[in-house]
Amino acid sequence: MPKVLGIAIVAAAVRDGEYRSKSANETIAANLCVVQRYLTRDPKDGNLFRPGEHATGMLDRARELGKLPEEAAMSRIVVTGPYQLLPPLSDDDFKSLYDDIAKHGVKVPVEYDEVGEILDGHHRVAICKMLGITDWPRFVRADLSEEGKRSFARSLNFARRQLSGAQKQAIIQEHLKDAPSSSNRAIAKDLGVDHKTVSAARKRMIDGGEIPHHDMVVGRDGVVQPVAKPIRTMFFPEVENLGEMKKVIKVIGDREHLKNVTQYMGAMNALPAIAAPESSADVTPRSNPRASIGTSTRTNQERGFNLYETPDEAMFALLALEKFSDRVKEPACGRGAISRRLEAAGYDVILSDLVDYGTADRYGIVQSVADFLTSEPDETIGCDIVTNPPYGTALNAFVAHALRVHRPRKMALLLNLNFFCGFDDPDRVFAMEECPPARVLIFKRRLPMMHHDDYDGPEAASRMNTAFFIWEMDDDGSYGRHGDTRTLRIDWKDYMPSEGGAE
Length: 503
Known about the structure:
eight-stranded mixed β-sheet; three-stranded antiparallel β-sheet; 36% helix; alpha/beta
């Protein structure tokens, strides 16, 4: 067993990953620890020492004998491993985690790969060893590629940890080095950041020669696609010249050009009649260029599964203004845009959706697949609900079913502000008049565009006014019986985290 100075040096090396001696006495004490394999010395720097193979065992014995300095026992630990990819915990964060595990045990399972390497939970395991805890909840993730393991480790911790702007940039750059052929949007989705942030980091790294330029990238859906999509152009007349253009087209009988102009101008009924095509298959349907990029209402067929992921800006505002019970239901979870933010704020989330997206919670429990409109709450009756429900024909029934059957203590739904209106649908009337919301948080600044899940084109401005409608159950089990619905105008920019805050 080393003397007090040697124990302190080994503890510091384990804590910080390395230790640089500051005096001749420290160098001597450290070299004695090297002999006993508590430390290893850097071959090029004789004053730099790292933990040896017997370091942890010696510290455990020192702790049992009461020889471990208290500041070393309670300070943060920076562990090493192939998937320990984020900066170390601060001393305050480490002490908070230490105290919580000492009092409650490990609540979030430690994630392992199929060969036993820790993907997430290095500090939890280290603290368990410090406390003498030998068993903790585990979850094994098999069949991940090496790139997938590193991506998973980063994505879990990126949203959970409080990182500075420089630390975030460093993690994004490391991710780009691991997966330079992944698209900006795919990486942004993995890390929970804006794709423009990834794009700026990629450009700097390509310009600096750190990563190669790729003409083809792998998108969020796993499909290989070109970085720059081709732009198709066509001549169209100005509106004031359309009349003359019609005459010319009629004379030359250029039906194909007429159809193209018709689609662009959206004026099929106003154009002169032409001979019908031989087959109905020749008819090009009327299209809306704005709808094709996700900036206008799609048809039901175009909507498909109606997945428009909620922007982080909406959730930051909601979580700053509203509190929920510890366990929250997300019955239209999609790919987890809402649940990720709820979990980062400390809530447990019960995930389900009509479609199997394979979304899992922080414990590794995969979403259930169920039609909410026919669902029964069972033991989850009364649980708070937070979701962005599917718009369209099912919306009114979705809201009414939640209030009638699931009976949440509190429910927050991100809806079009037009939900305030309407009188003909009995479910809308039930939700807004018989069970009116307690308050409505109206975004006076429009949220960033919620693009359809299959959209990977340029960003477009949103044309929809949205709000969080908040229902709260009264003491008598009713909703909204003790007062009128309050409306609050909010600006989501007021609730965005600072550069050094949680994201």
